[in-house]
Amino acid sequence: MTNIRIAIQKSGRLNEDSLKILKDCGISINNGKDQLKASARNFPLEVFYLRNGDIPQYLRDGVVDIAIIGENVLVEKGKDIRKAEKLGFSKCRVSLAVPKTLKYSTIKDFEGKRIATSYPNTVNEYLREKGIKADLHIINGSVEIAPNIGLADAICDIVSSGSTLFKNNLEEVEVILKSEAVLAVSPKISEERQEILKQLQFRIQSVLQARQSKYILLNAPNDKLDAIIELLPGMRSPTVLPLAEKGWSSVHTVLNQDKFWEVIHELKQAGAEGILVCPIEKMVL
Question: What letter does residue 153 receive in the DSSP assignment?
């Protein structure tokens, strides 16, 4: 039986989050310590553990069929590679940062400056669009120390919490792009493996939808039911069941996590009581 070959980062946070979403999709990986390749026990899938920066070329060459990779890496090294799905985790920014002692005003301040970065293609394109000429120093590793040792005037690197910039007395001044993990597809994927990809995407979409939603149950007096139901976006319409106590009903529905607290507050104001909130494991639409 044909397996679809997926590349994920060999170590780090993206590795952990990638394995977690596969696990949440019901896929069991036969992981062993320091393995470069592993097979799934219950899905036609092989996992290749690769260096993040090498994955675009493996996709391009058809060595792997799909990959979970940071969008920032695709922008830098694989703009020709198709993104099939945004995955909602490993979010970060590719940003320009300068020493806090520098009084920064506009992007024009980078004219003629030395910028240390691991993302030369991304930075060059951004500066070209802005009409800025700068001298790039390509560094693989700890880019943040470059200004402190006199190698550069500024840096461009990925930023998540900003703590690394803070420790190195740097300030984020320009966001070039916002990134998250994506499911990328090789241009050489076969038709047979595309069918397996559709099955995997169906599972991933169900998991992602569940992560963004909460299942809620609440009690409501019947004379306020219409007002409460009006507040509930729901999947199609809420489920309403009579309670043992006359004049009361139980209402069940799903809320989007982004608007959860606002809706809960409005429900309380409208007369809802005993609101229970439950996580959703999978959500098939």
Answer: S
Distance CA 87, CA 179 (A): 11
Phi/psi at 57 (5° precision): -70, -35
Q: How far apart are alpha carbons 239 and 185 in whole angstroms?
A: 40
For 248, counting Cβ atoms within 10 Å of its Cβ (0-12 exposed, 13-18 middle, 19+ buried), the class is middle
Integer Cα distance of 167 and 160 in angstroms: 14
16: tokens are 């952990």
CB burial string 29-55: b at 16+ within 10 A, e below: beeeeeeeebebeebbbbbbbbebeeb
Convert the pLDDT of each residue in 26-68 to its tens digit: 999 987 657 889 999 999 999 999 998 899 999 999 999 999 9
Q: Kindly report the pTM of this predicted structure.
A: 0.85
d(C-alpha 160, C-alpha 166), whole Å: 12
pLDDT at 127 over 90: yes
3-state helix, strand, coil in the chain (%, to 5): 35, 35, 35
First CA to last CA across the chain, in angstroms? 29
Neighbour order of strands in the sheet with 273-279: 239-242, 248-256, 213-221, 273-279
Mean per-residue pLDDT over the chain, rounded: 92
